[in-house]
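Students often ask what a 'structure token' actually looks like in practice. Rather than answer in the abstract, let us consider Aromatic-L-amino-acid decarboxylase, a protein of 485 residues. Its sequence is given first.
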Amino acid sequence: MDVEEFRKAGKAAIDHIADYYAGAIDSLPVNSLVQPGYLPPLLPDAPPEQGEDFSAITEDYHKLIMPGLTHWQHPEFMAYFPTASSFEAILGDLYALSIPTPGFNWTCSPAATELEIVVMDWAAKLLHLDPAFYNASGVGGGALQTTASDSALIAVVAARERFMALHADDPPNLANLVIYVSTQTHSLGLKAGKVLGLRVRALEVRAEDGYALRGETLSRALEEDKAAGNRPFVLIATVGTTSSGAVDSMAEIGNSLKSHPDVWLHVDAAWAGIALCCPETHDQLQLADLNLFMDSFCTNFHKWGLVNFDCSTLWVRDRKALTTALDITPPFLRTAQGDAGAIDYRNWHLALGRRFRSLKLWFALRGFGVEGFRKHIRHAIALNQTFAALVTKSELLELVTPPSLALSVIRLAPPNVAADALNGLNTALYARLSARPDVALTQTTLNGVFCIRVAIGSPRTTEENIRRTFDAIIEEAKVVLGELK
Ligand SMILES: *Cc1c(COP(=O)(O)O)cnc(C)c1O
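Now compare that with the structural description of the same chain:
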């Protein structure tokens, strides 16, 4: 493809993308209808010997790939958590793709590092994080990561490094180190344990505490483990758990950790963290205690935050913990600027090279402004209140936990059905719902209770979309109940 062909094909691609968002997406089923193995028989089994015309390639994209897509930006996508998309971020990423730079050192492309330094501080301000986490503080700071799982892994590595340094005179045996999570922590906690070869202990949470981790549970575990010779060194707490949007009791956790200052507190707010842009969420999300107690914090702009995947933000209170853990400087990576103290972001993440992600975050922050972010978050929370009100009014459904921001956790609970029959009923209901092309929800269990999650958050979702999904649930619920009789 030469430059003139690129100009033409590029404009056509933008037109296709614009048409998709202008309405084509609405007429597509939110779920793909294909079956496993649909694609290989439709493709040659080796790359072509001669280069092909670009029009043939795009034609196949539309013909073969589109039908195999789940449309995460569809207004009726309410599974998992939303995955953000905005035109600003798409264009930011397009520019980033046009100037590939591996960004590992300041010198790789000074603008890439310096823009990330600035936009991470902008993002920290958007979310009202304490100034201790700003890059401008010179002590704490933030960097963009691929995902919340990477962010947590990095936090655990930094926590371990700090723990080993604090106990240099009595070096802990690695086999005794323990990562703390709760039973509601995302699988990223267990993943970090697997990757690092460390034990993970999942602390229990109770339904009556709204599935939030309590300080008492943490204190008891710490005493027990220390008495047994174990060395807990990090807690991954959650603001907005994946199953139910629970928020761990940060004040209690912070107070409990006062007696264990060598235990690092990482806060995983992958989904809910973005809502901190709205001051009215600060009590629910316990911002004051987060700012006081946490050592590191992660949220994903690529979930509910208007920036296309991937864009996970990680802040630490002490950047040295991070860079001591991850800095390896062979001669070929040394630079005068790095020696003089310029940020080399390779020491803030796992790999060496890194994408120029700050560009899309910058575009989105500027395009929407703080007010635009707030409006987006408030829109989804209001829609979820509408949805939750429909559930509360319905005879057949109930909320299993109070709605959390834009997430509702529900189940079928008709009158006159024995409690021990409800899991079976709901499993059947979910099986029917997930077989439909027009409904996208996720299942979960909370301490043994089978539930269905409804996660709202696409900017294009309207009240009509909410009602359609609600009606589909009721329709299938009636079928399931009919089958029972
Ligand atoms: C989605 C989610 C994750 C995982 O996010 P990745 O960025 O895909 O690793 C982790 N924790 C919570 C609370 C989440 O909601």
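One point worth highlighting: The longest helix spans residues 358-393. Ask yourself how you might have guessed this from the sequence alone, and why that guess would often be unreliable.
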